[in-house]
Design a protein that fits this description.
The chain is an alpha/beta fold. The chain contains 25 helices and 21 strands. Strands 1-8-2-7-6-3-5-4 form an eight-stranded parallel β-sheet, sandwiched between helices. Helix 7 packs parallel to helix 9. The structure holds adenosine-5'-diphosphate (ADP) and magnesium ion. Adenosine-5'-diphosphate (ADP) binds next to helix 4.
Length: about 650
């Protein structure tokens, strides 16, 4: 059982649970003092067997308190934060009762007896999966999830075949009721799961409509993390003398989630994040941002820096969202970038880090966010990016989580470099010990002989190739506005504005961006944006020539596809810069961009011998450029970006 559940100690004996109860978490864990076990709860043996299969050892506090009340047939309001085990709290008693009823009737009835309403497809699926796992040893039981955004066919078939438990999103459930495909006349038990979230998503009316189309004689349970007045109203109207059970205090943020904050300015967040990810070992990561657009944006940027990241937000079709969550679960991706709503209730055990990339709107959201980690007994990390102006919010977060949030420091470049060099050395060791290197050994031996180059020189060249064009060492954080602005401006007069005299630095090329004086760009913002989004160090950015409606920038000729893609989507002052290799218009225009082509071409033969950025490709004669990868990028290709 997860530590966060065991650590939630309680002094509530099971018997008291059927009365209105407040389960207070005590500051000092009483070492399993009140040891309620599932076997104490009068549950059906098949359910108990399933619980032991899934590895639950003892009920969480909300379970210990609600299960007896629900078995008793009472309506229940269960209030507890995310991650406290609410699903099992309402599923276990329902299944236990159905199992016993089936015995009495000589087999389970096919009627729908249990209806669970959940706010999103993901949560509906999670609840359905949980039900299914707890019903594993019950014969002839079917749990059917029904949700919007997916075809009716399979759901209709499932309903026709009969499902004792239906878990659905409110909209789709209403559709099925209206179509006549969902018959609720034999319903015995309704659960409103994540009720506050359903409300927030605008489902209040739907929920009421569903509730009023169910039989009068039924049991109702309402589970929620919070209790806004509208939920209280629904509870009052539709629940009959409910047992109110609330587990107070920090439950998701057990001591197995370490909370830290990093003070960082907005434009440095991306660098800060990638540094942290590089230095610390994480499994699954979820990064929260404030807007839907920011989810896509950050996921794109992380991908262009080599991380496997994906975005989920409310605008993404549900099926795709579900696939993304699945990809996170099975390790196909490591980083999920999400809005609060899209990630609510997500239960993915491998999430070991929650990054509050943008600070949440309120402490409640913060608690929900960090509840995504430290699941199922693992330890979790939560990092909050906080700008100086947001710092005052820390106190209320500490209050809400009843836990200090430590300040953390960004890993220094020295530490990062040490780590990178160490990793590089490890890769060599691993390759030597794990791979068959004989073919290459012969090749190198031949090369050594033929070219009379010592082996360590060859190895160094290969190392550069292995780096794939990326510098191995980091420099300072690439965005240092003041210094760079000076430098960029200082170079400006030597570049671009004075006709064809100046040349490009070897290995560089001229790129065009679609913002200029008219958009009021400054060299500093160009350097900042390009360094940041392209993952370049300031030293890699050469001259900048700001013109009326575009600018020319000198950058390494062999930017990677990912860098180009990231840069083509970069914005300066809200405008997309559409960075592309400067195609050069007809030289006739005098000051036309074509001027830069000459030195660029002229430099090519030299560049062929230049191994600074990459291997093979740079050795190809320039004529091949239309055909190939890497440096062979042609201007025609760059247009695609
Ligand atoms: P909530 O709905 O309160 O957010 P969930 O029902 O999603 O919480 O449960 C959170 C996690 O805890 C799930 O991974 C679930 O399998 C696990 N869990 C629930 N109850 C127990 C228990 N008694 N012992 C161990 N793990 C449990
Ligand atoms: Mg839940």
């Amino acid at each position: 059982m997860p530590e966060n559940l065991t650590e939630q100690t309680t002094t509530i004996p099971a018997a008291e649970a059927s009365t209105a109860t407040d389960v207070e978490s005590t500051a000092t864990p009483v070492d399993d003092g009140v040891d309620i076990r599932f076997t104490d709860l009068n549950l059906d043996g098949r359910v108990l067997a399933a619980l032991s299969d899934v590895g639950y050892e003892k009920p969480s506090p909300i379970q210990a308190a609600t299960i007896p009340a629900l078995l008793d047939g009472r309506d229940v309001v269960g209030l507890a934060q995310t991650g406290t085990g609410k699903t099992a709290a309402f599923a276990i008693p329902a299944l236990s009762k159905m199992a016993e009823l089936a015995d009495v009737n000589g087999g389970p009835s096919k009627n729908t007896q249990v209806l669970v309403l959940a706010p999103t497809r993901e949560l509906a699926l999670q609840v359905a999966e949980a039900f299914t796992s707890y019903a594993k040893h019950m014969d002839g039981f079917t749990v059917l999830p029904v949700y919007g955004g997916s075809p009716y066919g399979p759901q209709l078939n499932g309903l026709r075949r009969g499902a004792q438990v239906v878990v659905g999103t409110p909209g789709r459930v209403i559709d099925h009721i209206t179509k006549g495909s969902l018959d609720l006349s034999n319903l015995e038990y309704v659960v409103l799961d994540e009720a506050d979230e359903m409300l927030r998503m605008g489902f209040a009316e739907d929920v009421e409509q569903i509730l009023s189309s169910t039989p009068d004689e039924k049991q109702v349970a309402l589970f929620s993390a919070t209790m806004p007045p509208a939920i209280r109203r629904i509870a009052k109207k539709y629940l009959n003398d409910p047992a109110e059970i609330s587990v107070k205090g920090k439950t998701t943020t057990g001591t197995n989630t370490r909370q830290r904050y990093l003070q960082v300015m907005g434009p440095h967040k991306l660098d800060a994040l990638t540094r942290i990810l590089e230095v610390e070992d994480y499994d699954g990561i979820i990064a929260f941002v404030r807007t839907k657009m920011a989810t896509e944006d950050l996921a794109d940027k992380l991908r262009s820096r080599g991380f496997s990241a994906a975005a989920i937000n409310g605008d993404i079709p549900q099926q795709q969202r579900e696939r993304t969550v699945e990809a996170l679960r099975d390790g196909t991706i490591d980083i999920l970038v999400a809005t609060d709503v899209a990630a609510r209730g997500l239960d993915v055990d491998r999430i070991s880090l929650v990054v509050n990339y943008d600070i949440p709107h309120d402490t409640e959201s913060y608690v929900h966010r960090i509840g995504r980690t430290g699941r199922a007994g693992r330890s979790g990390d939560a990092i909050l990016f906080i700008t100086p102006r947001e710092k005052y919010l820390l106190r209320s977060i500490e209050k809400a989580t009843r836990q200090p949030v430590e300040q953390m420091q960004l890993p220094s470049p020295a530490k990062l470099n040490e780590l990178r060099l160490g990793k590089f050395a490890d890769r060599i060791t691993q390759t030597l010990s794990g791979e068959d290197v004989s073919l290459f050994r012969d090749l190198i031996a031949n090369y050594e002989q033929e070219h009379n180059v010592p082996a360590n020189e060859i190895a160094a060249a290969l190392a550069v190739m292995a780096q794939g064009g990326q510098p191995i060492l980091v420099q300072d954080i690439p965005v240092a506005p003041a210094g760079q602005r000076e430098r960029a401006e200082g170079r400006k007069d030597g570049f671009g504005s004075r006709g064809p005299t100046r040349t490009l630095t070897e290995g560089n090329a001229t790129y065009r961006i679609a913002v200029g004086r008219r958009q009021r760009v400054m060299p500093g913002s160009i350097v900042g944006a390009i360094a940041n989004e392209g993952g370049l160090s300031s030293a890699q950015i050469g001259g900048i020539d700001i013109r009326a409606d575009h600018s020319l920038v000198e950058l390494p000729a062999d930017l990677s596809k990912d860098q180009l893609r990231a840069l083509s989507r970069t914005r300066i002052g809200g405008e997309l810069i559409h960075l592309e290799l400067d195609k050069g218009r007809k030289p006739a225009g005098g000051r036309g961009a074509g001027e830069f082509k000459k030195p660029y071409r002229k430099d090519n033969p030299k560049r062929d011998g230049d191994t600074r950025f990459s291997g093979d490709a740079s050795r190809k004669p320039r004529q091949n450029k239309g055909a190939g990868a890497g440096n062979g990028r042609s201007s025609a290709q760059s247009e695609q970006y």
